[in-house]
Amino acid sequence: MALPKLATAKYELILPSTGKTIEYRPFLVKEEKILLIAQATGEDADMLRAVEQIIENCTFGELKPNSLPYFDIEYVFIKLRAKSIGEVATVKLTMPDDGKTQVDVDINLDEVECVRDVSHNALIQLTDEIGLTLEYPRVEAIAKMGDLSAGEAGFAIVKDCISQIHDAENVYAKSDMDAKELDEFIDSLTHSQFEKVQEFFDTMPKVKHLVKVKNPNTGVVNEIVVEGMQNFF
User: Which end of the chain offers a freer environment for a tag, N or C, measured as fewer CB atoms within 10 Å?
Assistant: First the structure.
């Protein structure tokens, strides 16, 4: 005799990068196992792979995480976590006013949003004739950064996210670019030109939430921006 099947609730969310409505379900024990196994290794790459698998499972295969911008991954996982474990996550925050006091803060995950900067632009004009178009970092690119220094990771992300380079006469697609030539192109940027590129990453959509927390030792009320899904595991 077959065992009864348990019904699972379905919800909807709007994907930040496209505005498309996505149907999803909470993660189940089988997904919790994936997450726990990844957490046990302590490796960021394992956690990212686990999150990718959970997102694909819980969106009924509609979302392929390796094709999504990283901020989509963070946003979808946080919404999954809210419906699966609970809307409130307790995070430990260090108070900026003294740099040492830590306070446990409850955050309602339903209030966490993907915030856009109005000045954000993927087209970077380097000179009057030469510019480039950037695409958002993908989860696979983020995973590769784990073994690099902060400086190396920054340059590697820029290289990975260049989609096109154009001049007055031609548009060069990334698929047609030689890796060595691309390295040389990035190395030839001036400081001010590289800052223009960096602004793309500084202003791209981010999953974050502003909280106000009173330091119990000093009485100072701190405003703290909590970013990234790692705070909500």
Answer: N
